[in-house]
Design goal:
Chains A, B: It holds the Pfam family Peripla_BP_3. Two copies of one chain form a homodimer. In chain A, about 45% of the residues lie in helices and about 15% in strands. The first copy, chain A, has helices spanning about 10-20, 20-30, 35-50, 55-65, 75-80, 80-95, 110-125, 140-145, 170-185, 200-215, 230-245, 255-270, 305-320; strands at about 70-75, 105-110, 130, 150-155, 165-170, 190-195, 225, 250-255, 280-285, 295-300, 325-330, 335. In chain A, the strands form two sheets. In chain A, strands 2-1-3-4-5-11 form a six-stranded parallel sheet, sandwiched between helices. The interface between A and B is large, with 56 and 56 residues. The first copy, chain A, binds a DNA duplex (30 and 30 nucleotides) through helix 1, helix 2 and helix 4.
Chain lengths: ~350, ~350
DNA sequence: CCGGTAAGTGGGAGCGCTCCCATCCGTGGG
DNA sequence: CCCACGGATGGGAGCGCTCCCACTTACCGG
């Protein structure tokens, strides 16, 4: 470092070459109005000739903005969600920023050192806003950013009431739809393979399950609930437990597709036919989903819309710095395939 | 944007509160020597009291450095390599930067718009150097960056002679080792499932195959070479072709583990025993590898070392701006499991 | 007792840009 | 023919920091 790249021309040099003032060149570079067309062309020629590129540090310093936003992943996101979720969010966020001059920066926060460094980076003004991939309950990052007054949007939430803007899928609603569908299909002994109970998203999906039972007059039985950790293996194990406890089970709602896939295997191993003996519905439908056999009926999370919405909210907060946090819940969609 | 976060204190304000000059505060903030301990403590107290965080734009502007590097992925990397490769590289790069004040920024370049934006970002001085994930032959990005005088290190190379610093695995050597191992095991009709012939990495692995044959006195036969695209499915197809052409085949070297996995399936379908009838060796051994049945003998790419080396070279270039590009080839390792 | 040296410190001079106001020029109406 | 007005333009005043040099002070040896 400390090295200077050679001959990076400055605004002033462009102005000199074009025979105009600094202000005019700045206006041309920033595509601002109020420059005569002939002047604009002269300046553009000078810019091209010198290969001028604006110094972004100077622009930031003078303009009080960075024209960049960060999308932060924690170590946990990194493994837990695997590629499809991550890819889809990143792509939709990227797409949503295409028409802006904003550069998207992905950053990985794996340790306290890295968190600290990132906070200094963000508070230091290198980004105008931060998007947080799903955060864990104990993650101090959202509040650190909020306290620093940085526009921040989270994907998902850590609890029922967040004091940070977030976008989330309608987890409860999606689960409710799934279970309602099972009930309408005449199933009445419906097991649940839930996620880790300390995760809010898992709580919501479980709540949706309960909410669906009530109007149908079916009683909630906690023996029908088994907890998993969103992994395929945990789904397999949970399904086995469930069958042992309730051989009469005629349907299962799994809080993730991976767990549903594990459940499918366990059911096959137990000689149950799907969906004849036991109907199965999953949750997520990340694209491209690894196809199950038979193809899984599931609740689709609107990832593309989530990414897009996060960007919209972030840009709005960057623009206006609203007083209140906003919470957006996006609808899920029940995708009927062959397991229910 | 255009918004100002409230009350961000400046160096000057800290200096005033601590009753010292700007220079002294700067020295404390940057952990520079030449400040009396008592003074240092006073200043640190003032910093804490005001919650001072350095303005990085100002620092960049005055200090001619960004304290950040970018790791660029193109759309192609994104899909082609999937998670394990990507994850391991990112982690090792991250680890290698832990002890520096350098922030790692992952950026995704999917279109010309995004490429242009990134180049402006990089040339604008927001990063001190760039790491490029594997690049394709036609990718103009490396040369754009090189021309801009930005320290740049590529993972892999686009051709035999690159005018950009790169780090690569010894693809030819790894392939040679694999095939030599097969020959030593008494196999002499060894098929190859190669990668796309327009990719240099595929050429190298194929070259290694040929180089191993010669000293063993085995003649190269092009009918033993089938081309794949690194996907499991293409490996399956290639294996079928190979068996049709050469029923007497007694070994296969696949230029990737995915293709080897496909080959394994095809062999099983054809009723061949592995390794008794046909030995199989793959290439990559990305962790965590999806286990094959039987466990695959393969050539391990030293991803961790590659990431670490890339960072070392980049930091060196940032420091000294050497005249010549450097090319580092890291050794692979033949991992013997059950298929050969 | 004094010059000499080193350690510690203060602050001027930018870094290259944006913002904004003063200025200039051309035009149209009175 | 003069003045007022608005669009186009020039450039001063910073933005908050680092770099570096000048300055102060304390302490050393002669």
């Amino acid at each position: 470092m400390g090295r200077q790249r050679p001959g990076t021309p400055t605004l002033e040099e462009v102005a000199a070459l074009a025979g105009v003032g600094r202000g005019t060149v700045s206006r041309v570079v920033n595509n601002a109005a109020g420059v005569r067309d002939s002047t604009r062309r002269t300046v553009q020629r000078a810019i091209a000739e010198l290969g001028y590129v604006p110094n972004l540090a100077a622009r930031s310093l003078a303009g009080h903005r960075a024209d960049a936003v960060a999308l932060v992943m924690t170590e946990t996101d990194w493994r837990l969600f695997g590629e499809p979720f991550f890819t889809e969010i990143v792509h939709s966020v990227g797409d949503a920023l295409t028409d802006t001059p904003v550069q998207l920066l992905l950053t990985l926060v794996r340790s306290d050192t890295e968190r600290q460094r990132f906070v200094e980076y963000a508070r230091g003004g290198r980004v105008d806003g931060v998007l947080l991939m799903s955060v864990h309950a104990e993650d101090p990052l959202p509040d650190m950013l909020a306290k620093a007054g940085l526009p921040t949007v989270m994907l998902g939430r850590r609890s029922g009431d967040e004091s940070v803007t977030y976008v989330d899928a309608d987890n409860a609603g999606g689960a409710r739809d799934a279970v309602t569908h099972l009930l309408k299909g005449g199933r009445d002994t419906i097991g649940v393979i839930g996620g880790p109970p300390d995760m809010y998203v898992a709580q919501c999906r479980l709540r949706g399950y309960r909410e669906a039972l009530e109007p149908a007059g079916v009683e909630f039985r906690s023996s029908l609930v088994v907890e998993g950790d969103f992994s395929e293996e945990s789904g397999h194990r949970a399904m086995r437990d469930l069958l042992a406890r309730h051989p009469e089970l005629d349907a299962v709602f799994a809080a993730s597709d991976s767990m549903a896939a594990g459940a499918l295997n366990a059911l096959r191993a137990a000689g149950r036919r799907v969906p004849e003996d036991v109907a199965v519905i999953g949750f997520d439908d990340f694209q491209p989903a690894r196809p199950t056999d038979p193809p899984l009926t599931t609740v689709r999370q609107p990832l593309e819309a989530i990414g897009r919405t996060m960007v919209r909210l972030l840009l709005e907060e960057m623009e206006e710095s609203p007083a209140a946090w906003r919470h957006v819940i996006l609808p899920t969609e029940l995708v009927l395939r062959d397991t229910a």
